[in-house]
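Batch 3, record 17
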Amino acid sequence: MALVRSLRARVVLWVSVALVVLFAVTIVGLDIAFRDSTDRARRELLEVQLLGLIALAEPDFGGELALPTDAIDPQFEVANSGLYGALFDSGGRALWQSLSLIGRDFPVDDLPLAGEQRDFTLDVPGFPPLEALLMGITWEFADGHTGAYTFAIAVSLETYNERQQAFRRNLIGWFLGITVTMLLVISGLLTFVLLPLRRLERQVREVEAGERVSLTGRYPTELVGLADNLNTLIDTERRRLARYRHTLDDLAHSLKTPLAAMRTLLAEQKSRPQEQRHEALERELERMDQRVSYQLRRARASGATGLGTEPVPVAPVVDDLKQTLDKVYRDKRVSCTLDVAAGAVFRGDPGDLTEILGNLMDNAYKYCRGRVRVTAQSTPERLVITVGDDGRGISAAEAATLFQRGQRADESVPGQGIGLAVVRETVELYRGALDVGRSELGGAELRIELARAGLL
Amino acid sequence: MRLLLVEDDPNLSRSLAAQLEQAGYAVNAATDGREGLYLAREYPVDLAIVDLGLPTLSGVELIKSLRADGKAYPILVLTARDRWQDKVEVLKLGADDYVVKPFNVEELLARVDALLRRAGGWAQSELVCGPITLDTRTQEVQVNGSKLELTSFEYKLLEYLMLHAGQVLSKTQITEALYDEDFERDSNVIEVFIGRLRRKLDPDSTYKPIETLRGRGYRLAVARGSPDND
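Prediction for the assembled complex:
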């Protein structure tokens, strides 16, 4: 049913299919039960009437059996009443036929033997459909002689059939009524149940149009997660956009200032010796390069939303980086020990983790005397990574510059600081913390702590 | 030392080639990946400098092909991508080092020098063979502790011999490594320079550092490492 787009249409469709099937089965069942019970009642009626006739019969003066009509059921006396009766002798001669036959012969050819009972339906011209009951008996008269007789009763099926039809019509009418009522109720209920979804949709549209900052209001428990996730997504998207704008502004600044400086330098070229001019240009180029690379690197950190991000195992990333750095710093023969818990995972963008670890480990390799140590542990709540070395360490003053909040690293820290500044900003995107301490190896130890809860 | 330079930016390529040549290397330059692969297959190379963003055949593909061909010489990657993921991938692929654009030419030269040294089996920038000490960074040569004045070509020749100390190097090999293609290949020139180098290194003919193997070439016959340490 991929074609049915609306939830309401789907529910209504499937409920009606279910009701139709359910009611069809019920109607057929009730119809059969009703027919059975009327069949049984009619049979009983035939038997009672037959026994009544037998009870009324008495011998007449001619030594034959006769039916005195004064005490008979009045239905036998009314023309076409639907109840017919007859009494036959053994030769098939009618001794009595009810007045309701109005002169017609009781429609039977084949009489049962004495002691035999026969029940059958008849469809003969001139009569409505009939059910007949015939019983052959032997009558013992007072003088001792006996005679064989047949009592016959027939009842019209017309009224019964009509009643069956009426019952069926009633049944279908009621069930149709119930179905329509139920669909109306369900449809109304759905409008009510789907109200929060409509609100969600409206609010998302408003956010899109910029008329709203986030999704607000109480949502039912089933939708709370969705609404929260959407809010996270909206928030991340907005922060990312803000970051890109800042980056662009910063980049423009970073590029234009050295460009202006270089243009000025070129303008005054006549007054200065060649050597000095080259040096100054070189300095400006260096400054531009540093700023651009810093801005690009911090802009690239994704600070993933925590939505749809699989946990990234830390160990393979550290291994890869160790191999890379071992190759790059081959001459230095650094002994790098890894102590990364097998279950340590990072919840975020894999590229960000590689960038954080790459910068930290590269600094450690660069400034160590010969030993580097990387550790990582994670609990369900947090991930802690440390990178230590046996270099000269980071002084308190350097750390202070580095961690001054909002400090743009390209303005303050030359060269080496850029990597750490990028790490700090990336970690902050994940609402984590970066600390500088002293390593057991004797040099600096950089410690990152990322909380699981910080992601959402 | 012959370098293969594959860089598609014409200005960068020309300027780099000129500075590499000035530093004493012979350079084969290609401006796209296919040409780079062709040159790598046609000429002997001691080191390749490969830009990652190349037309016709990407740098990554080129490095893969070179390694698949069994070329074991060092490969230095030039790249504008400075993400650690990219660096890790490039080195995993078979490159030996990377330099991120924009780079200083001095930095690039230092990396090239270090890679060539390592390929020759030297871990330090100071090459020591018996009494001869050659510092690849300062380009200074000392014999028995006293400084030796060498011309640029003599220095390159000695560096080449020392980097391949113990190996037999044919005249063709030496010519190809030290001269550019358009240079006239006259093997007598090598003989002349070997002679001069011998006189400067060993004026009294005491330890005969450079052996001539008739019909095969030359070999630096002094063992690696200083005699005091071994």
